[in-house]
Design goal:
This protein has 388 residues and is mainly β. The chain has one domain: 6 Propeller (Neuraminidase). Helices cover 4% and strands 44% of the residues. The longest helix is centred in the N-terminal third of the chain and has 14 residues. The two termini are 14 Å apart. The relative contact order is 0.15.
Length: 388
């Protein structure tokens, strides 16, 4: 607890001042990769696990192990896996044991755990075409029974040549006992034929009583439940140029439509889409909530975590590297609302060398874990003064 407190105090100290000065930290990977990542003074970073592929989102099991998904690559495939990160060594700041829990999965992006009133533990897994859960047995390295299917999702869309579609499903268990699932759009920008697209579903832990919690979110990959509220990151469409729309970060309001594809945010204003909502005749954009923070267009925000007074958000980055958008972790503090400050940079090195693409952030030990789905690495970030 004192270690985590020290990390939070470190974030508080940074929040009270101007944007922090970032210090280079040399990273050497087993595959020969060598580069520098830049962190605020007083923070350290180490490689906690490596040798994975498209490593994505994390969750902590009831027996305090870290489960992480691996989607293999950017294609629609059935070769994804879930790994268990176990036996963390504080001296080396590495996991001694990395175990494959499940394999041959269709684009596994997100996992979650829940303990019901009977004391049974459940392991949830979000795939492109379905949401499943397994009975979880403490200490076991793989489920022993068949999964229960709680929901199914459309599993097709336009390929990347036509603007792409969204293979990922993200899940989070709310403190209210409800399960939330994000389902991305089938396209870059279009009027969907299936109601579930571009939405967030709410349901009971057994899949019953499903309802639409929020709509009009083109690709809300990052979900986090904080202080009885649901926060989300969302990616804007790609047909309006290099500087709009903004990518967004919301505190979600129940039964609210966030506008896609009819409205978009740029800067602090909401505009009607010139292709799908000419003159605002199809949808009233004045009803669309403004985001907490508008990120630069094509930043591609993914995972997020909260540390008492600050959010950290992983900006995955644009595939158009020349834009130099994203490829970093940013901090959003309660004391400076609406401002995103760099916290970790160096994932994109001038002129256009990719050293990594941050995906998820997860509170751990005296700091946090950070997944990089480009290099297949899990980093551990901690405050230097908390060690020892």
């Amino acid at each position: 607890m004192r270690f985590l407190l020290a990390f939070v105090v470190g974030l508080c100290h940074l929040t009270a001042n101007a944007a922090p000065r970032l210090i280079p930290h040399h990273i050497t990977l087993a595959n020969g990769g060598s580069f520098a990542l830049n962190l605020p003074e007083g923070f350290e970073i180490s490689v906690a696990a490596q040798g994975l592929r498209r490593v994505r989102f994390m969750a902590r099991s009831p027996d305090n192990r870290i489960f992480v998904t691996d989607m293999l690559n950017l294609s629609d495939n059935r070769r994804g896996a879930v790994y268990i990160l176990d036996q963390f060594d504080p001296a080396t700041r590495q996991f001694k044991k990395v175990t494959k829990c499940l394999s041959n999965l269709r684009n596994p992006n997100s996992v979650a755990f829940y303990t019901d009133r009977n004391g049974w533990h459940w392991f949830y897994l979000a795939l492109t075409d379905r949401l499943v859960r397994y009975r979880y047995e403490v200490g076991k390295d793989a489920p022993s029974g068949e999964p229960q299917v709680l929901a199914t999702f459309p599993d097709y869309g336009l390929n990347y040549k036509y603007g792409g579609w969204h293979l990922t499903r993200t899940i989070v268990m709310g403190g209210n006992g409800k399960l939330y699932v994000s389902v991305g759009s089938s396209c870059n920008a279009c009027e969907e034929k299936e109601e579930v697209r571009a939405s967030i579903l709410e349901m009971d832990p057994d899949g019953k009583n499903q309802r639409y919690f929020a709509r009009g979110l083109r690709n809300a990959v990052g979900l986090r439940w904080v202080n009885d509220r649901l926060y989300v990151t969302n990616m804007g469409s790609d047909h309006l140029g290099v500087n709009r729309p903004a990518d967004t970060f919301y505190l979600l309001q129940a039964e609210t439509n966030y506008g896609w594809p009819y409205c978009f945010q740029a800067g602090l204003r909401i505009y009607p889409d010139p292709k799908f909502n000419v003159g605002g005749t199809k949808f009233d954009c004045s009803k669309v909530p403004q985001s907490l923070v508008p990120f630069p267009a094509h930043s591609s925000p993914l995972g997020l975590e909260y540390f008492n007074n600050s959010f950290l958000v992983a900006l995955h980055g644009s595939t158009r590297k020349s834009l130099r958008r994203g490829y970093r972790v940013v901090r959003i503090s309660d004391s400076r609302p609406g401002v995103a400050e760099d916290f970790i940079t160096g994932f994109l090195e001038p002129p256009m060398k990719t050293n990594g693409r941050p995906a998820d952030i997860f509170n751990f030990q005296n700091g946090f874990l950070l997944t990089d789905d480009y290099s297949g690495v899990v980093y551990y970030v901690y405050r230097k003064s908390a060690v020892g």
